[in-house]
Amino acid sequence: MSLLTLKNKKFTRRSKEDRVFDTINVFLVALIVILVMYPLYFIVIASFSDPNMIYEGKVWLLPKEITFEGYERIFRDSKIWLGYKNSLIYTVVGTIVNVSFTLMAAYALSRKDLYGRNVIMFLFLMTMFFSGGLIPTYLVVKNLGLLNTMWALILPKAVAVWNVIVAKTYFESSIPNELLEAAKMDGCSDAKFFWKIVLPLSKPIVAVMVLFYAVGHWNSYFDALIYLNNENLYPLQLILRNILIQNEASTMMISDLESLAAKQRVSELIKYGVIIVASVPLLIVYPFVQKYFVKGVMIGGIKG
Amino acid sequence: MEIARKADPVINSTTTVKKGLKLKKILTNYQLYLFLLPALIYFIVFHYVPMYGVLIAFKDFVATKGIMGSPWVGFKHFERFFDSYQFWSLIKNTLGLSVTQLVVGFPLPIFLALMLNQMRSEKSKRFVQTVVYAPHFISVVVLAGMIYVFFSNNGLINNLILMFGGDPISFMAKPEWFKPLYIASGVWQETGWAAIIYLAALAGVSPELHEAAIMDGANKWQRIFHVDIPAIMPTAVILLILSVGSIMNIGFEKAYLLQTPMNQPSAEIIPTYVYKMGLQQAQYSFAAAVGLFNAVINLILLVAVNKFAKRLSGTGLW
Model's pTM, two decimal places? Predict the structure, then answer.
């Protein structure tokens, strides 16, 4: 949009109808923002409030009878920290595998001179629409001897077809063919070209891939549920599930409490606390990397 | 191909040399094939081998005998599934959940994108976007945990109900509340994120179209209908095909977490049933048959919808 039209847009008088429209629109959007934010905000204040105040419905906008007991118990619990550590390892190793496999494959497929690329692309795409299902996949993982190892969480999810498409689209549109020809003239090999020229030119797409995959690893619990039964290998999300849904792991954290009422009170507090502890890292980083996520969705969408 | 033709059109015209060129092309690009190798091995091992492994649905699978050694039983497991008392309730729950999710969840991101697109202040628009995208990054475990604490007997929602003079509801124990909770939490988490793609389509609308419409005296409401909505139509069609095509693929993860012993009658869906039968009770063949049934229905739906959409609007996946 040119500067002139921008200015015009600002200074044209809106009709009465349009002003009514804008007012209603702003009101509705504000309502949506509140609906989205309030549950998150409530969790934050509830994690600092005395659970009895929540039960009695006295906590709405500000924490009441502030207590740090929930956090103290969470930070003392070794299971949660072990889960944090495990999740961190799985996320880092998994993301490295994901990103390297995906980018290499995507680059190769983006090259128009790759003989058979349509066939290979078709092989990849097919898996989006039909799969053997849970049981046959489980049997493969089992037969490979991956059960109860970190690799059960990483290898079966090594490449996401969608991300290959996104990266391939990006390479096709942003690496000019002339560059490759010039490099070839100078005797540059494909591997060297990819490493020295393509990757440095593709930082945004590398960021997109790292973020997509990392969030996926950090948030997933299902693979751990089916492939792991050694508690020492549990990622954070599985431990969270036991605390939040099964009411389980928190028995460890509240074993010193005598009465049932006190136990219930504190385990409720712990629930609010662990939600915060588990989500905070992502929610803090997110506003700064948001543009990369959005970019990833858009590249995928254009092709889509 | 193109490069080769440019390089030497004469050689290219004879087929024998062409074959040689093909081989040469593969050889000169061997590094690219090496690049492809890890992903290719991955897809073969973790996608195509399981597709072969799905044969156990037609066999009585015994782990020690392997897939080939186990005896064929034809459609025995399918028949058992069709005849089981749970069959119709599973179909009803699975379809009911995904169709409702589609009907409720599909239009909302479009509305949100249209509304955001009409906001006059870029700054507040960006703020709203940051807020509404955020829930997408919350893990499904945390989301389910939030539902449990908000909808527990002494939770936030029941306090609200009490405040307005109603009677508390034990949401997690009532089968009829499973679906609303599942759908509403999905809307809360994904609507903002799903709007991104429509916002991108709207950003691509040429400003001249809007200017011309303003010249003709169109108000905002009319411009939404005659400029914005036609502009996002192709995107919407593609996304609709994709979502109808995955209608039986409703996520295992959230449904499983939201299941309680009390809401089972409406919360048991095909994926959770496959998990319980297959992995908890080790009835591999039966569970694989149920899973295969699901996958085939899905594939048929996808192909049908794609055909239908192509005839109707000219846009399709392939």
Answer: 0.88
Q: Judged by CB atoms within 8 Å, which residues 271-310 of B form the interface with A?
A: 271, 274-275, 278-279, 284, 287-288, 291-292, 294-295, 298-299, 302
Residues of B in contact with A32 (CB under 8 A): 112, 128, 132
Q: Do A132 and B51 touch (CB under 8 A)?
A: yes
How many A×B Cβ pairs under 8 Å? 284
Going B258 to B264 to B270 to B273, the CA torsion angle's sign is positive
Q: Which fold has domain B79-313?
A: MetI-like fold (1.10.3720)
Kindly list the domain boundaries of chain B, sorted by start residue: 2-55, 79-313
**Structure-token pair, residue A21:** 């429209």
Task: Count the alpha carbons within 13 Å of A149 in the hemisphere toward its beta carbon.
Answer: 13
- Cα A72 from Cα A62, distance rounded (Å): 21
DSSP state of B56: G
Q: What ipTM score was computed for the predicted complex, to two decimals?
A: 0.89
Per-residue pLDDT of chain B (318 residues; tens, 9 = 90+): 344 444 444 444 455 566 677 788 778 889 999 999 999 999 999 999 999 999 999 999 988 888 888 899 999 999 999 999 999 999 999 999 999 999 999 999 999 999 999 998 989 999 999 999 999 999 999 999 999 999 988 888 998 998 898 898 999 999 999 999 999 999 999 999 999 989 988 988 888 998 899 888 888 889 999 999 999 988 888 888 878 877 777 778 999 999 998 998 899 999 999 999 999 999 999 999 999 999 998 888 888 888 888 887 776 676
Which residue on chain A is closest to B19 by alpha carbon? A115
Chain-chain contact of B134 with A298 (C-beta, under 8 angstroms): no
**What is the C-alpha separation between B212 and B192, in angstroms, rounded?**
30
A-interface mutation test, from B22, B52, B142, B205, most A Cβ less than 10 A away: B142
